[in-house]
DNA sequence: GTCTATAGATGGATAGAC
DNA sequence: GTCTATCCATCTATAGAC
């Protein structure tokens, strides 16, 4: 603001600083996603990133603040993409998308990011882990900030006018459970059980399978009174 | 063996020892289920159980061994009950139970144990946590010992002779995901989203909802080639 | 078997030199 | 901004008295 012409002499330092922060973010996300939040120390991260031990506290304040920063960025990205897909589906269906399109907007972003060659493959595992192992600050956000899910719930209620909202909320809970179970460890377990015939690397096929299952489940007749 | 007539003077000590072990098991299971494995120290457990700090190492060897002991006991109980229900369903249906009966045998034990007044309510949360936060030993067991799931997969394959096993394994993965999402934190989140109309305390209704959703999902037409 | 005291290891955070 | 050295808290595990 006070310096409309950036001082080019500062650029290398600013770039170096940005590079350090980026290296920490990448290393931390990867290690946390693979080993769990409590099983990774500040020392592990700085060693992996090739930066100094003190740099996490200097740039982020604390280990927990670093964790929260990754969490905040990734969930924001994810929910933005989901909202974009839901909005697009609404546009295609005169403002009232069918169940299948709503579920696709909910599932597709995290699943597509999980494909082997995708840059955000690790980010998805990080987010899944945050749901069960997150710090107090993360859990606070997860429990109270449900605004992104609000739009999906409202869309489902509009798409299923004859179904009691209570039932719709439960089925949404079930659909989200299907999604959150897509952890590396669970894929491995399934791989053992199926003797190798399940291949989670085919992300589009998995997305179709999930949408098929959840959409049909959503149309189930209500048996409970 | 060498003392066929038990020395009655030993009984109080043996009882005291058993009581100490039991107090540790109960306190540890509860604290781990509520706060997570890494967020509970040996000091927290012994203080809560009202026993000595050294008693965990004396009776169980280590903190991890205690964790594993709880895990081993609870998963064994759970899988025994599931197998019993599956076996009973097979008896009722001439050895070939339908999808609904198989899913009920898979879901009912952990769900019924989760009801507010049930003694094993905490045990279920412990087991769910073990899936994502467990020690190396637990993850080893979870990944390689799939024998209890084997029977369920085989029953589903028999019940759905026209469906490719690959599809059946995936749908089983989805059904298990629905189940594993039943953590306290997820119920709370759903409660906020639904503005209080979802009540997870009605376990039988939740079981019916889950079976309805999963059974219908299992009958979905296969769209992927 | 129980308990206190402590060893021994690890982790997060920070002071201070450069 | 970076880095080293270090502080200090915390944890598991165990030795040794009773």
Give helix % range of chain A.
Answer: over 70%
Most extensive interface between two protein chains, with residue counts = A-B, 60 and 60 residues
Total DSSP helices of chain A: 11
What is the 3D form of chain A?
A: globular
Helix-strand pattern of chain A: HHHHHHHHHHH
How does the major sheet of chain A shape up?
Answer: none
Quickly describe the structure:
Chain A has 225 residues and is an all-alpha fold. Chain A is built from 11 helices and no strands.
What does the model show?
2 copies of one chain form a homodimer. Chain A has 225 residues and is mainly alpha-helical. Chain A folds into 2 domains: 13-61, Arc Repressor Mutant, subunit A; 72-219, Tetracycline Repressor, domain 2, CATH 1.10.357.10. Helix content of chain A is 72%, strand content 0%. Chain A contains 11 helices and no strands. In chain A, helix 9 packs antiparallel against helix 11 (203-218). The N and C termini of chain A lie far apart (63 Å). The structure holds a DNA duplex (18 and 18 nucleotides).
